[in-house]
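Q: Start with the shorter request: fold the first protein.
A: Done. Sequence, then structure:
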Amino acid sequence: MDVPILRLEKVVKQYDKYRAVNEVSFTMPPGALFGLLGPNGAGKTSLIRIITTITKADEGAVYLNGELLNSRHPEQIGYMPEERGLYKKMKVGEHLIYLARLKGLSPAQARKEIHHWMEKFEIQDWWGKKIEELSKGMQQKIQFIATVLHRPPLIILDEPFSGLDPINTNLIKDEIYELNRQGTSIIFSTHRMEQVEEICRRIVLINKGRNILEGSVKDIKDQFKLNRYRIDFSGEVPAALIDAHTVVEHRDNYVIIQLKAGEDSNQLLRQLLQAGVPVTAFNEILPSLNEIFIRQVQEPQTA
């Protein structure tokens, strides 16, 4: 069995009387596209700071590639924080070389990697520009290059598409997919559920300092499904067949039915076909991650 790229065991972080991280445990398989989700104040940033060795856990342990986290590991991690950390007065080229050197690259290696990424993004003429001369979206491209140029096996991206237009979002997204195809493990920390649903294959959901949900996106959606099916049709569905089931929604050209526990969707489809209903589509409706997210983190209603 492959050693997890990242493993947390009962990690705790306390700030005075506030426990930001409360015995969080999860594993991240190597090569995963992994979503770290949670509402504001859930503890995501505190966890990331521990993983990147910016701060230390008060209790518990973190392992990178099976090795207890230590001061050498930041060179194996690329981290793009939500609050972008660029020096406004520095020029793009010298800034990227400076950041690459901090990650252990030689000046020659740094220049080679920087030129590689600038060519990819077609921004070779930015080398002598000051960071403050760039737009927010342009700065974000530079921040992304700084995150990945040392080719770390683990990349952590905190709200990576914030402030980007659709074209540049797709550009960065394509590079993320390519890095992952090459074997890079990637963590997304975000509240944008639609992006997680599109990109990530596994997630962990953090709320009030605890992880309350973990697993593959497919398994989690299966876990929370409500046995609902949408049947698209032309013509009419016999009223008797409709009345025999729980109807969630009924329109001229489709109906959504919720089956009871033990009822078989294949049997429902057979009944429709035997009744002569011209079915054009028959699909199970799985909950979105946004719906699951809301159900899991919302406060219980009080009388």
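Q: Next, the second protein, separately.
A: Sequence, then structure:
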Amino acid sequence: MTRVETSVSLLCLPCAGASATMYLRWRSLLPRWIRIVPVELPGRGSRSAESLVRDFDGLVAQICAEQAEAMHGNFAIFGHSMGALLAYGVARRLRSIGRALPVALLASGSSAPSRRDPDRFADKIDDASLIADLRTQGGTPEEVFASAELMRITLDVLGADYRVCEAFLYPGEAPLPMPVHVFAGREDDIEPVRIHAWSAEAGGVYSLDWFDGGHFFIRQQETVFLATLAQRLGHAVAGDRHASHALA
């Protein structure tokens, strides 16, 4: 493990249908030098009274504006599934508007931006399809399925988030000038070639770590995943230019 003398803020973006609370427990599980900043998106959790956002670029711009204070000094951006796509969008926008860049982009459980399936969310418009998707991916507590109120909230948020993903258009820009560290589940239904394509987004250091489990391997393999996350982030903070490799 790279020795870290400097703390870093880790902005964590949620997956589709979820809120920032999915990352709260990490505060007690990761080293103290990592300051977890769970990013709450409009329309869920503590912001449930706000309108849901269905536009990718609009949501990215809003995140950059709202999290400006957290994006000072050493900071990194992590996202799982939809959160990974948003993290990529945030890093790209920060570069385009001349803002400070994160020490690393950490993407989990997501196809690379260049290899996303444009039809992935096209038919997920009715409740039955959304519920089936929740069942397939796992990660949703049974009490949510058992509660009509919680299920209604979840489906509304999930539907809006799928529209966000559907609105994404790959820009085909130059690789990002920062380390890109990717994490994936071996039993996830995302084709490995779509995950390996993240390497094209890294202008320098790149790594890919695989874990047993499905789409929510970050919970199924939480201990080993968080240890790997801390290691990758430690290398990034230390400026280790020799930490670039992929693990099968």
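Q: Describe the second briefly.
A: The CA atoms of residues 93 and 233 lie 21 Å apart. The chain has a mean pLDDT of 89.
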